[in-house]
Design goal:
2 domains; Glutaredoxin; alpha+beta; Immunoglobulin-like
């Protein structure tokens, strides 16, 4: 028994290091505000992506955030303000650069149409959506009704879809934008902050979609 305790005491610090994630999400829940931080535990800068879908907050749903996290630092990702008398709750998707770099690629690495199991034709319209997204449903109904060629990918059904969207988005944003679904991609151009879907549909040049 003494030998076991001695060996465990020697290994314990290494077990702690092994269990510490490179980047972790820290949740600080106070009565008047819930703050979500990204903690970078590495010696290199990381990019963190957080999407929160919540209920019972002043601000919630469909607002993914991308931020750069300096080495060994903690950065606020989002602050949620609970509504008075409500029972707040949320679900979240959190990932970071090091995880995304592990995505397996097919032959032709570096070409967006060969990423993982989701080949992307740059001439095709790709729409990233999720369930319970009214704007997503409005857009896809329009595309189907007008028989406009497109592909719809649900970011919640497969992590590879989420990673693909993030991979292309991080080259299009500065890190401070609030990104709202649906996210559209066509010929390497990303459309990620559509305020009025009706206005977008009326003004987008649909004839350029092959």
């Amino acid at each position: 028994m003494k030998l076991f305790l001695h060996v465990f005491s020697l290994l314990f610090p290494f077990l702690l290091i092994a269990q510490t994630p490179a980047v972790e999400l820290i949740e600080d829940k106070q009565p008047k505000r819930w703050t979500l931080y990204a903690q970078n535990n590495t010696d290199i800068e990381q990019e963190a992506f957080l999407m929160v879908n919540g209920e019972g907050f002043r601000r919630s749903a469909d607002r993914p955030i991308i931020k750069k996290i300096p080495p060994n630092s903690k950065v606020v990702m989002i602050i949620l303000i609970p509504l008075k008398g409500a029972t707040p709750s949320y679900t979240k998707v959190f990932t970071f650069e090091e995880q995304l770099q592990t995505i397996k690629k097919r032959k032709g690495e570096g070409k967006p149409e060969h990423v993982n199991l989701l080949p992307v034709n740059p001439k095709q319209l790709t729409v990233f959506t999720e369930n319970d997204c009214e704007k997503c449903a409005y857009l896809t109904n329009y595309l189907n009704r007008k028989r406009i060629k497109h592909r719809t990918l649900d970011i919640k059904k497969n992590s590879a879809v989420f990673n693909l969207m993030w991979k292309h988005l991080k080259d299009s944003v500065s890190g401070r934008e609030l990104i709202k679904l649906p996210v559209l991609m066509h010929k390497e151009t990303m459309y990620f902050d559509i305020i009025s879907m009706e206005h977008f549909i009326q003004n987008f040049d649909w004839e350029k979609i092959d």
